[in-house]
Every structure is written in C-alpha cells, then in structure tokens.
Design brief:
By secondary structure, the chain is an alpha/beta fold. 44% of the residues lie in helices and 15% in strands. It has 31 helices and 23 strands. The strands form five sheets. Strands 11, 12, 13, 14, 15, 16, 17 and 18 form an eight-stranded mixed β-sheet that branches. Helix 11 (255-265) links the parallel strand 7 (244-247) and strand 8 (275-280). The radius of gyration is 29 Å and the shape is globular. It binds a DNA duplex through helix 4, helix 9, helix 19, helix 25 and helix 26.
DNA sequence: TCGCCCTATATAAGG
DNA sequence: TATAGGGCGA
C-alpha cells in the first residue's frame, strides 16, 4: 500500500527535465548506489545554481554528503575550494564525518566547512584590519554583551527599568541580522528605543567593541559582509577560491547571511554563474524569531535565474499515517513552495489524540504509555517528548523521577553558559589577552575579595583618564591612594597573580595553568566553602572544563573553540527517554513521539500570534509539522483543559492544529473521568472525534479564531473545554459563595474578576479558577 | 561591602 | 510558582 499525499500548492514549479548525462554504469562510483532518482540528480547537478527542496525524512544529509564526496572524488575541486556552510556545529561535524566515511579516511583541508559564524570568524581574522580590528579580537558572549550595554545605558542616563539592556541587545542583534550598520538603521526604528537613542546607542556599542578589540556574534557576519562589499579585491579572491558553494538549512538564513552568500556566489545579475547549491525545506522554517527569512528560500529561483530545483519527496522515515497527518496539517499554510511527500508501506498506527484534565495527568499518561512500549521491548532512547515551551518539561521530569523512568533533557542551558564556566573562562581570557576588560569586570570581585562597586567605579575612571585597559590601570592604581586600603590590597594581589600567570603561561601546559589559576584565584576555595546543593556540581564542571582543554594545542585555540562552539560532546549509551523543545528536535527522529500541550495559546503560542499575526501562526504550524515528522512509527498528541502557568490556573481550548489533522489519520480519546461528576455529558462525549467533528465544536473554533464576536459556546463545550472568552460580567458567583471544584474540592470565593474566581479551597489553599469549573457547593 | 528581602517578570535558543 | 535583580539596612 502506498501513501501518496497530494499537495494543492504543488504546481508552483514545473517538473525538471531529465537532462543530466548518465554516468557509465561500469564506472559508477559506489557512493551513488542506493540513491533514488532525485537524490542522485541532486548529487550530480554540480554545475550552476541548484535548490534542493528536501522534505522531512527524505535523506537530505545523505545527499549533502554524497554531493560533497562526489565533487571531491571526481576532482572537480580541492577540499579547500569548497565552501560548505551549516547553522550548527553539530551539522558541520556530521558532514565532515560522513564525507570521510564515504571517500575513505578523514577529510583533510576542508577549512571552509563550518558554521556561518566559524567561517565568518576565520575570514574576519584574516582581514581584521579592514574592519578596524586586530586579528586576535575576542568574541564576546551574550553576558558580556549585556554588561556592556548596561554600562552604555548608565552613561547615557537612560532608565534601564524602562528601557532594559536586553531590549536594546535584541534590537541591535536584529539590525545586525538584517545587515544594518548604525547609519543604516531606519529613523523610525531608531526611535523605538529610549526616545530615539537607539541608533546612537548602537553606534556607541560598536565603538566600545572596537576599543576593546572585541566583536559579538552579529559582527562575525556583518563585518565580513562589509569587507566583501567595500573591498572588491578581497571579494574577487574568495569568489575565485570557492568553486563550489553549499548551504544547509537555507530556509533558516537571515538577511546578512543571504547578502554574504549572494556576494560570494555572484548571484543577482553579477554575470557570474556560480556553482551554488542550497538545501532546505520551507515547511521547516521555525526560526523567524531569530531573524531567519523564509523569503530567502522562496525567492531562490529569482535570485539565481536558471536555477535547477530538485524536490526530494520520497520519505524514508515515517509511516503513511504520520506523513498524511503532517501533510494535511501543513497544507493550511499559504506561501509554500509545495511538496508532495510520499512513502511506501502499511499505513501504520493512527495519530492518537487525547484530551486530559491537566498537565499532571498528561505527564502520567505519557509516562505510562512509554512504560507500556518499553515492556514491549521498545527502547526509551527511541521515544521523545517534544514540548513547545520549556516550562512544560517540569511535570514530565517530576513524573519520571517519581517513577524512576530514565530520561534526559536535550538542549537547555549549555555547558559553556554555566556561570562557573564563564567565570573560569574570563580568567583564562584575561591571561591570554590582558586588555579584555569585559572579562576583567566579570571576575574582579569573584570570588569576593572586597572590591565593591565603588572601587570598580574609581578604577574605571582611572582607566579612562589614562586610556588604558582595566588590568593595566589596576596595576598602576594600586601604587596610588585612589582606593581604600582594603580594596587596594586585594586588587594588588589580583594584579600580581595575573602577571605571574601570564608569565608562566609560556612555560607550562595550558591545562596546568588552568588549574593553577582556579586554585590561586580562590575560585575553587569559594566553591568548596559554598554549602549549597549546586556547589559540588560546579566543581565537577570545572574539572570537566580543564579536562576538555587537553584536546587543544594552546590556550588560544581552546578559547576560540569555546567562543564558537559552546557545547561539549558527550557520548550517550544509556537507554533514556528524550525530553526537549520542538525547536531542539529539528533534524532528529524517533520511533515514538509524544506531543503534549496542543492547546490554543500555548501551541500555537498566543504571544507569537499577537506579535506576528498570520506569519506567526504559520510558523507555529510549521513547528507542529516539524514535531509530527520527527516520528517514525507513532505519535501521541495531547491537550490539557487546565494548566498552571506562572502559578495561576488557566483553561484552554484544544489547539486548532488538532482540528487541522485529517480525521482519517487520527484516533481520538477522551480520558475517563474528564467530565468528572458531570454525568450526562459523558454519553455524548465518549469519543473525542465525535466532539470535534460536531457542529458545536466547529462553531466554537470559528468563534475563537474569527476574533470579533466571541459568542459564548453552548454549555456543553463550555463545560467540556472551558473558555477564556465568556462575558466577564456574567459570572454567576459572588464573594463569599461556597463552591466545589473537581480538582481542589470545596472552597470559599474570595474575589471575582470577570469569569475568574479567586477561591480559598479548604484543602488546596487559595487558587485562581475559571467559574465554569466550579459548581455551587 | 555584603546579604537579605521584596518585587517584577515570565517563548523558542543557534553561534 | 520560581528566579533574578534592585534596594536598603547593618
């Protein structure tokens, strides 16, 4: 049986002619065998611009690696003549490893295979002087970025309560993502921050970075773009060098990356017909909030006239049922390039959709389902729970811990983002580069050595007047009487330490140096004295940090790696269930996928819809599509009628995405007891499918999304799903009423606010509930 | 300068 | 509900 899903938007492009020259079978290289027709075409179409639309699970990575291997083994280019860009280090690593496996041995010399940022850093170090920097510039992290901006706001006397540094940081990031230098920022946008100070703050920030010989992640791309634009000789050199260009996840490129690429690839009427191949899937574009422009991929054929478009549509991952559900869902989006994914085999299990009372029950269900599968010899490692927001993880973790079910969280705070690691890194950075003021500020009083804000201010003043970096200024200030004796002594010791560390750094291995710094600075002692629960873990992390330094030749090499990679590799052999956000799941696959929290407001996220309207909703829908297509064999979707968000209870309707799943691929269930004591409704509702097919349900959905007349749904839905939409004035309860709630029991109404009641429950304490969930008691 | 308490706030997270 | 950061008293 074949699942074949017609996509109504599929006619956006015509079929490609089959015009490639057939290879002689006898001489066919082994790596080509096993590729399907389209994959093979994508591998062999090496010349001219190519867009490979790779649907979920269609063998994209295989095509990418084979294509590169093909170019190398047919000697079309040397490794150093290929530019291959990815978004994540993981993807870059995987490419490198798999090419090696294909052509035998390790690939040497692919120095231009990497992330946008690592390639940007490489280029910028080569031409640093053209961007007004020295080639040993520091790459600052988001912490440093924020600290710097706070200083700028303070210097400008801007109230950082009203205009938080975070907001400025994200505005500047946004501008950099769009390739805008301070002078390019449109007036209107510059005025959006602190009464028109946005642009000058951006300029001041850049000025400070330059003075610090530092740059942020955005600069790694924007400065390179500027250099390529303003120095035709440099551009010509790179154009000449890169015989083949390959970009992975093209739908995630932002404007700077796009402009950068277009310059290098010579698109847009430059007359150069370059061999640029971009690979991506418009249906999996989920990073608009990070600056990604889905338009880039939609527009590729116009940017590179005569581009060949190859669609990979045969899915090797999921069952027809899963693929059918996902295809049906994504069909609701407009403005797609359109693909018709298909697969072979038995239809497989339907998507299980289940409504539950609250998040706790949802977690109980998922856990017991997982245990069931595990008893039937399914590996936990082949199961994943994909949530929209990380706060949803808590319920699952609680449940797994109490059951002793092994789990692991993917993503989340990364190793190099931990405070203790950043502190240690700041010490190392400062030893390597004495004028790294941001690092110095970070650790000047960590561990506490009696140098408070006041002393730091004095030091700042002094450094500024002497036009010196802070560390050098500290060395000078301790022979004056500018500082109080205590601070003066402490600072003197610190400066002495740094001078000594810098000295011995030339003589001893950097791992030894690292240990010396951590011990002599008092940092390890501080953690040893710390009796909090986290302290031992932090000490372990520091040990791990020193251990990971061993793989690097020098301190400088290590620092560059950390700045760009931010993660530490860990080998995983234990059988554990995976818990992560939907975003973190992109590119992964599992036999079984649990998709909890499909509720209006949570998924699709209300905030995204408020901020970005239909485009936001469509991105949420793509996220749902990504989630579903992670599943190979089975998917479980659930939604909870009630959820505690930031401590207060909220009720929600099932996600509209549930309604958009083709019914033939869905098996729905309502949990027993969902209607609690409300006997009489249960008979109508024994199958959820009948509910959401019912006219009442459709009407409720229509009212929900139409936005204006929010009619109160019929009582039956009101009871079943609750509403956030009922008339605020209509609460039938008043202060002092005695009420009963299904979950919390009896209580006394303390306050009424629209349809929200604050109830003091006898057992559960004070809670906010929606009036539809209580009855008179 | 340190530490405690109070209050404001709350997606997603790559490099 | 949890946490982070600011304000204020010792």
């Amino acid at each position: 049986m074949t699942g074949h899903y017609q996509d109504p938007l599929d006619s956006a492009f015509g079929d490609e002619p089959e015009d490639h020259a057939p290879l002689m079978p006898a001489r066919e290289p082994p790596y080509l065998s096993g590729l399907n027709k389209e994959q093979r075409e994508a591998v062999e179409a090496t010349e001219g611009p190519v867009l490979v639309l790779a649907g979920a699970g269609t063998g994209k990575t295989r095509v990418l690696t084979t294509r590169l291997a093909h170019i190398l083994s047919t000697r079309k280019a040397w490794p150093g003549q290929i530019l291959a860009v990815t978004f994540t280090n993981k993807a870059a690593r995987e490419l490198k490893e798999r090419i090696g496996a294909l052509i035998g041995g390790v690939v040497e010399g692919m120095q231009w295979l990497g992330t946008f940022h690592s390639i940007g850093a490489r280029m910028l170090r080569r031409h640093a002087e053209l961007a007004g920097r020295k080639s040993n510039f520091t790459i600052i992290d988001t912490d440093d970025q924020l600290r710097l901006m706070k200083q700028l706001l303070q210097a400008e006397n801007i109230d950082d309560k009203r205009w938080p540094a975070r907001t400025l940081a994200s505005m500047i990031d946004g501008w950099k993502n769009r390739g805008l230098k301070p002078e390019d920022v449109p007036d209107g946008e510059a005025h959006a921050f602190a009464f028109g100070k946005g642009r000058s703050l951006y300029a001041a920030y850049q000025e400070r970075l330059r003075a610090l010989n530092a740059c942020d992640f955005g600069d790694l791309l924007l400065d390179v773009l500027t250099i390529l634009r303003e120095h035709p000789d440099v551009l010509a050199d790179y154009r000449d060098r890169f015989r083949y260009i390959l970009v992975d996840e093209y739908q995630d490129t932002n404007t700077v990356q796009y402009l950068w690429l277009k310059l290098l690839a010579g698109g847009g009427g430059s007359g150069v017909r370059s061999n640029v191949c971009v690979v991506g899937d418009d249906d999996q574009s989920i990073y608009g909030w990070r600056g990604a422009e889905i338009e880039n991929i939609l527009r590729f054929e116009r940017d590179f006239p005569g581009a060949k478009v190859i669609r990979l549509e045969r899915n090797y991952r999921s069952t027809p049922a899963i693929l059918g559900a996902a295809s049906g869902l994504i069909a609701a989006n407009k403005g797609r390039l359109g693909k018709t994914l298909w697969t072979e085999g038995e239809p497989g299990e339907k998507i299980a959709v289940k409504g539950v009372w609250d998040a706790e029950e949802e977690a109980r269900n998922v856990a017991s389902e997982a245990e069931n599968l595990h008893r039937q010899n399914h590996l936990y490692a082949q199961m994943a729970i994909l949530v929209r927001a990380s706060f949803q993880m808590r319920e699952f973790e609680d449940r797994f811990i109490s059951l002793g079910l092994p789990y692991k969280v993917i993503g989340g705070p990364r190793f190099y983002e931990r405070a203790e690691i950043r502190d240690a890194m700041a010490y190392f950075r400062l030893v390597a580069q004495g004028d790294d003021d941001l690092a110095f500020e970070r650790i000047i009083n960590k561990p506490k050595r009696g140098i408070g804000d006041a002393s730091v201010q004095v030091l700042h003043q002094f450094a500024r007047s002497m036009r010196m970096p802070l560390l050098a200024a500290a060395r000078d200030i301790v022979v004056t009487d500018e500082l109080p004796p205590k601070a003066k002594k402490a600072l003197g010791e610190l400066v002495g330490n740094f001078m000594r560390w810098a000295e011995v750094s030339r003589q001893i291995p950097h791992t030894e140096l690292a240990e010396m710094i951590l011990d002599e600075s008092g940092y390890t002692d501080m953690l040893k004295a710390d009796k909090s629960a986290e302290a031992p873990g932090r000490l372990d992390n520091l040990k791990e940090l020193v251990r990971s330094m061993e793989q690097f030749e020098s301190l400088a090499a290590f620092l560059e790696h950390v700045a760009l990679v931010m993660e530490i590799e860990q080998n995983e052999t234990e059988d554990r269930i995976n818990l992560m956000t939907l975003h973190a799941a992109k590119g992964l696959e599992f036999d079984t996928v649990f998709l909890p929290g499909w509720e209006e407001g949570l998924f699709p996220s209300q905030r995204t819809m408020d901020e970005n309207g239909v485009a936001g909703l469509e991105e949420e829908r793509r996220l749902a599509y990504v989630g579903l297509t992670r599943a190979k064999k089975r998917a479980f979707i659930s939604f909870a009628a009630n959820r505690r968000i930031h401590g207060s209870w909220q009720s929600a309707l099932p996600s509209r995405f549930i309604n958009e799943l083709p019914p033939e691929h869905v098996a729905a269930a309502i949990d027993e007891g969902f209607y609690g004591g409300n006997a009489g409704f249960r008979d109508n509702m024994d199958g959820f499918a009948s509910t959401y097919d019912s006219p009442g349900w459709k009407r409720a959905q229509a009212n929900k999304s139409s936005g204006y007349t929010r009619a109160r749904p019929p009582l039956i839905e009101a009871q079943a799903w609750s509403v956030q939409t009922s008339d605020p004035a209509a609460s039938q309860f008043g202060r002092g009423d005695r009420v009963f709630h299904q979950k919390f029991g009896y209580g006394l109404v303390r306050a009424v606010e629209g349809n929200k009641l604050t109830v003091d429950f006898d057992k559960a304490g004070e809670k906010k509930v929606i009036d539809q969930f209580v009855t008179r008691g």
